[in-house]
């Protein structure tokens, strides 16, 4: 004959008895805040690391071709290459923003080459004025 053994209750730990409803709610809010803080820290970490739009090797090849066109064999430091790439990408992004404004001004949604040409022409006129 089999005897059924029931596990003994640990009377010292009962989460419902030890904590009131408001304490449980505050613990829930704390865990939500921790989660939210973790997400914020993760997004800040992502923003701090500079993610370049153009692959580094491709950009390096283009820069070496341009430098090599002048006939001399120059060497370029990694930090200088990153600075050139960052500046080039910033210029390209701002040009695309201006071209997008031209597209919206034309009441269109598709960016076409004449928008980029117009943005370049407007920039050129602004540079000659200052």
Automatic annotation (TrEMBL):
Listed InterPro entries: H2A/H2B/H3, Histone-fold, Histone_H3/CENP-A
Highest taxon in the source lineage: Eukaryota
Listed GO CC annotations: nucleosome
GO molecular function, a single term: structural constituent of chromatin
Entries under Pfam families matching the protein: Histone
Core Histone H2A/H2B/H3 domain span: 40-122
Similarity comment: family membership: Belongs to the histone H3 family.
Protein name in the entry: Core Histone H2A/H2B/H3 domain-containing protein
């Amino acid at each position: 004959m089999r005897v059924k053994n029931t596990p003994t209750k640990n009377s010292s730990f009962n989460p419902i008895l030890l904590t009131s409803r408001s304490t449980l709610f505050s613990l829930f809010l704390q865990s939500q805040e921790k989660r939210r803080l973790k997400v914020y820290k993760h997004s800040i970490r992502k923003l701090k690391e500079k993610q370049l739009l153009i692959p580094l090797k491709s950009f390096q090849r283009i820069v070496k071709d341009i430098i090599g066109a002048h006939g001399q064999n120059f060497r370029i430091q990694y930090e200088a290459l990153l600075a050139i790439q960052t500046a080039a990408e910033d210029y390209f992004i701002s040009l695309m923003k201006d071209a997008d404004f031209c597209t919206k001004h034309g009441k269109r949604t598709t960016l076409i080459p004449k928008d980029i040409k117009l943005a370049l022409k407007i920039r050129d006129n602004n540079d000659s004025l200052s």
